[in-house]
Amino acid sequence: MPEVVVAGAAGRMGSRVIACLRDTPPDSRADAVSLVLRAALEAPGHPALGRDAGEAAGIPVTGVAITADPGTAITRDRILVEFSFPEATLEHLRLVAERGARAVIGTTGFSPAQREEIARLGTRAAIMLAPNMSVGVTVALRILAEMARALGDDYDVEISEVHHRFKKDAPSGTAVRMAEVVAEALGRDLSKVGVYGRQGMPGERTSQEIAVLSQRAGDVVGEHTVTFGTLGERLELTHRAHNRDTFARGAVRAARWIATQPPGLYSMQDVLGLR
Fold first, then answer.
1. Which residues, 6 or more positions from 220, have their beta carbon under 8 angstroms from its beta carbon?
2. Element holding 183 (H helix, E strand)
3. 148 with 237, same domain?
4. What pLDDT digit, counting tens, does each position of 168-215 carry?
5. Residue 4, beta-bridge partner list
6. How many CA atoms lie within 13 A of 61 on its CB side?
7. Which is it for the CA torsion 77, 81, 82, 86, positive or negative?
8. Which residue of 53, 100, 169, 193 is most buried, as measured by CB atoms within 10 A?
9. How many separate domains does the chain show?
């Protein structure tokens, strides 16, 4: 039975992953993989250190105490599941590659250089990296590429996202990925046509630009809308997350899948068999 290490165990996402690990019913397929929580990590000095991971997640005790020792927690064949910060995640992924472990990563905000390092680490370990682990969002990304190709350059593309006031990066990793998918489908270089917010007198919208606009308010879990607009009509694709469990359940599904994969850098589309 594969053993799971949850980093950011007392955070908004880590605690829900721990809860979903406990609550997700066993898969009835003969080849299904069952998972067990074996370690929980938090940053040095975090107030949850020493607490039972289940207690911190608001579920019955698990017998797994939250520690700040990734060197002990991340061992061969264990699966790291992490939603935290880029620097901490990279530190843990280096251990994953060094020790022969695996990883499911939902951390966002990586710089281009950090993403390049993750790609290199993926040649030594099985790593599933996704800015959004919702099954619905993963399907939406597949559909977006088809929509963009079919509609073509006659339609303007605007992407908007709304998240809770505590989110630190903007635009969201999901919105960035949506923009990348649309740009790839239309044969555009996002670094040249991406627009992130407007102010003052920016002038008439160009036909090639792909805009990404961010809002932060209250406790919104996550909403993303991609708008394709032309003279006479508008087509929108929207995903709304009602709670964080949709992402946590996707992470658990990804952990089951990554348990049997060879080294490589994977996405949720790989997990769902969409490519």
1. 162, 163, 164
2. helix 173-186
3. yes
4. 899 999 999 999 999 999 999 999 999 999 999 999 999 999 999 999
5. 37, 79
6. 6
7. positive
8. 53
9. 2
Residue 171: DSSP 8-state: S
123 and 248 within one domain: yes
Residue 29 CB contacts under 8 Å (≥ 6 apart), including other chains: none
Say if residue 89 is in the same domain as residue 16. Answer: yes
- Closest to 150 in 3D by CA, of 239, 232, 228, 233: 228
Task: Locate 101 and state its tokens.
Answer: 């472990």
* Domain containing residue 24: CATH number: 3.40.50.720
Query: What range does the domain containing 175 cover?
Result: 135-241
pLDDT digits (tens, 9 = 90+) for 71-92: 999 999 999 999 999 999 999 9
Considering the domain architecture, whether residues 63 and 97 belong to the same structural domain is answered as yes
Q: The sheet that has 79-82: what strands, in order across it? A: 66-67, 36-41, 3-7, 79-82, 102-105, 126-129, 264-266
**236 and 248 within one domain:** no
Give the C-alpha separation, 31 to 255, whole Å: 14
- Collapsing DSSP states into helix, strand and coil, what is residue 267? coil
**Eight-class DSSP state of 48:** T
The reported pLDDT for the residue numbered 28 is 45
Q: Are residues 55 and 149 in the same domain?
A: no
For residues 243-268, give the mean pLDDT.
Answer: 95
* Residue 39 φ/ψ region, left for φ over 0, alpha for ψ in the -120 to 50 degree band, beta for the rest: beta
Residues 125 and 248 occupy one common structural domain: yes
Active site positions, annotated: 163, 167
